[in-house]
Amino acid sequence: MTLRTYVIARVLLTIPMIFILLTTVFFVMRVLPGDPVQMHFEKMASPEAMARMRIQLGLDKPLWAQYFDYVVGLFRGDLGKSMQDYSPVGQQIFSAFPATLELAICSMLIAGLIGVFLGVESAKAYNKPKDHVIRVFGIVTYAIPVFFLGMMLQMIFGVWLHWLPTGGRIAPGMDPTGLNIPLSASSSAFAAYFLAPCLVGVILASIYLVVAKMKHKKFGRKAFAVSLALFAAGWAISAGLGWYFVSSGGVHVSTGLFTVDSLLEGNIFKFGLSLKYLLLPSLTLGLVLCGIFIRLTRSNVFETVRLDFVTAAKARGLKDSTVTYWYALRNAFLPVLTMMGLEFAMLLGGAVLTETTFSWPGLGRYLVDRINFRDYTAIQGAVVVFGLFVSLVSLIVDLLYAYLDPRIRL
Amino acid sequence: MLAWIIPGMGSLARRRGLAGKVVILGAILTAFIIVMTVLSPWITPYNPSKINVGTPLTAPDSQFPLGTDNVGRDMLSRVIAGGGVMLQVALVSVAVCLIVGVPLGLFSSHIGGVVDKFFSLIMDSVYAFPGIILAIAFAMVLGRGVINMALAIAVVYVPSYFRVIRSQVLSIKELPYVEAANSIGAKRGTILRRYILPNVLPSIVVVATVNFADAILTAAGLTFIGLGVPVNVPDWGWDLTNGRSLLPSGKWWVITFPGIMIILLALGFTLMGEGLSELLNPRLEQGAEK
Questions:
Q1: First and final CA of chain A: distance in angstroms?
Q2: Phi/psi at B143 (5° precision)
Q3: Which chain B residues are closer than 8 Å to A151 by Cβ?
Q4: Mean pLDDT across chain A, nearest whole number?
Q5: A152: chain B residues, CB-CB within 8 Å
Q6: What residues have CB less than 8 Å from B246, skipping those under 6 apart?
Q7: Confidence of residue A127 (pLDDT cuts 50, 70, 90)
Q8: Lowest mean pLDDT among A182-191, A249-258, B37-46
Q9: How far apart are CA B54 and CA B73, in angstroms?
């Protein structure tokens, strides 16, 4: 199987997986006893009010029609209307998502760093007391409920030491705005349409020329044509962007990730502040997840250290840390990488509880908040988005793995 | 006790020093908590559900070694008695997983073909999904109660059983003695029951033990976000939820001790599972002996 066939097969397999998940969630929510509308009102509303709500949400249609509507809506990015306030669920999820993404990335980094470091240390001290201590630590992290660890850290660093905030994403009114450059059409038109695009074009063309020079290509008619074309393309694209930004009143770039946005805004104080708020939740989640990384790194490094090429590296007199980190770990890293795909699902599960503990306004907290309102559409939407996210990440990890390790494609 | 579950396991546990000790440590921890929970009506110093036994929110002292909660209940009594719900939920969910997951895994992998592909795809889809999120959705739809909560948790973990059993059966199926049984005309059911199942049993025990810990943690999580079992018996998960609002005022004892109990219980099962899986798959240990 070539890499291309593998990629196609893997992508095609993801589609039924998402579809099965979607279908299961949809039918479980509908078929199991308990009418959503009745549950929502807790049987307190008049039959007319309930009937009105059913019509408004399309719940009066037959089941297959509802399913069809839902699937068609999904392709348009429409996740239905919230049962609580009738606003589109898709938008609510979209605005809550970056917070979860930020938490997930940061915790994965922490889990990976702690896990790989301790795993290597453990493998180096195989079957010595240090190894046992690290392994016990790994097993204990696995047995800790994530929200309990979160509350303990809140207690220690928030309530007792007052070092870090115990909840929320950033101090009220301090939300970073992202990159904001106001442009008025009259004053900056010259810069936006001519100067900046020219600069971009020149940069593009010179990059090409430098690369060509490095590859020892002759500077002939063809190279001249290519650099001219690059200049024109760069000019056209950035002039188009310039036109777009000027006509919309300026440049606004906001990722929703507070750490990135505060940097884009150029506000170091806000960056520090958002890091401060991010630290405890991601440390909690990272610590709970690092156990699997410890175990995998330990066993893989231990097996790799005994291979000939590592012995050879040692024999050449390389430093001990160089041998373990640059030779053994690099080759032991592939299994750790695959684990990251599966680990990511656990991470998102843990994120739901962590977000609840730290009042982190992400997708998990949205899900938990909506449980209290029995908001079926919102919960279904959140579950489906979580599913899409997990499938996407595992797809990327698998493809990366196939690229790095040709054996998997066989 | 182990020797009864799996023939030969007891001697294995004796031979492999550390892993065997880990299993025994886990078993002692678990047995201690189970016995404590069962005996709790007789050994708690106060009635764990009775309010105003002491002044509300007394810090740990000589009269109340673990303090009291916000309505003056004795935390020590609640810690001793609080494991019941969680143990029941975990037990029922593991039982459901065994009843559904094991036969499904056996048959699907033995039959093979399209049926196997179909089940594997479904199970892989569920397996790849964040467990607790699915459990939240199911628990909300099913409503409260021990059985419902256990079912919501079981749905999430059936795929782990299915996958382990399937991969085991697929490798055992190719062994010469199964082939021999096939060639002398043994029925499919007989082969599954008498030739394959006994060899899959050890892995089933490992999965179920590890799964116990998962089920306990998931149950605690569900209770924490307000989908717990509404009973008026003490419950560690409920105490944690209750103590969360007392946390900003620094009342650490209301959450700390129930939390530690949950960790100990989950740890007991995890240690057992860890040790057992190492006993059954001693690849790493053999490497060390070289």
A1: 6
A2: 90, 180
A3: 240, 243-244, 247, 255, 259
A4: 81
A5: 255-256, 259
A6: B57, B69, B70, B254, B255
A7: confident
A8: A182-191
A9: 7
Contact A383 B137 (CB under 8 A): yes
| Contact with chain B for residue A126, Cβ under 8 A | yes
Q: A81-97: per-residue pLDDT in tens?
A: 887 777 888 888 888 89
- B290: nearest CA in chain A? A306
Contact at CB, B259 and A145, closer than 8 angstroms: yes
Please count the CA atoms within 13 angstroms of the CA of A184 that sit on its side-chain side: 2
CA–centroid distance for A183 within its chain: 32
Per the CB < 8 A criterion, the answer to whether A265 and A178 are in contact is: yes
Q: What is the pLDDT of residue A185?
A: 58
Amino acid letter, A239: A
Q: What pLDDT is attached to residue B1?
A: 44
Helix (H, G, I), strand (E, B) or coil at A252: strand
pLDDT in tens, A290-334: 988 898 888 888 888 778 888 888 888 888 777 777 777 777 777
The arithmetic mean of pLDDT across residues A9-38, rounded, is: 76
- Amino acid identity for residue A275 in this structure: L
Q: What would the 3-class secondary structure string for chain A be? A: CCHHHHHHHHHHHHHHHHHHHHHHHHHHHHHCCCCHHHHHHCCCCCHHHHHHHHHHHCCCCCHHHHHHHHHHHHHCCCCCECCCCCCEHHHHHHHHHHHHHHHHHHHHHHHHHHHHHHHHHHHHCCCCHHHHHHHHHHHHHHHCCHHHHHHHHHHHHHHHCCCCCCCCCCCCCCCCCCEEEECCHHHHHHHHHHHHHHHHHHHHHHHHHHHHHHCCCCCCHHHHHHHHHHHHHHHHHHHHHHHHHHHCCEEEECCCCHHHHHHHHCCHHHHHHHHHHHHHHHHHHHHHHHHHHHHHHHHHHHHHHCCHHHHHHHHCCCCHHHHHHHHHHHHHHHHHHHHHHHHHHHHHHHHHHHHHHCCCCCHHHHHHHHHHCCCHHHHHHHHHHHHHHHHHHHHHHHHHHHHHCHHHHC
Q: Which residues of A touch B245 (CB under 8 A)?
A: none
Does the pLDDT value for residue B164 go beyond 50?
yes
Indicate the burial class of A41 (C-beta count within 10 angstroms; 0-12, 13-18, 19 or more): middle
Which residue, chain included where needed, has tokens 């209750």?
B242
Q: Which residues contact A51 (CB under 8 A, 6 or more apart)?
A: A60
8 Å CB contact of A140 and B142? no
Test B225 with A352 for CB contact under 8 angstroms.
Answer: yes
- Helical packing angle, A376-404 and A89-124, nearest 10°: 40
Cα separation, A283 vs A286, in Å, equals 5
What tokens does A242 get? 């310039």
Gap between the Cα atoms of A64 and A118, Å rounded: 52
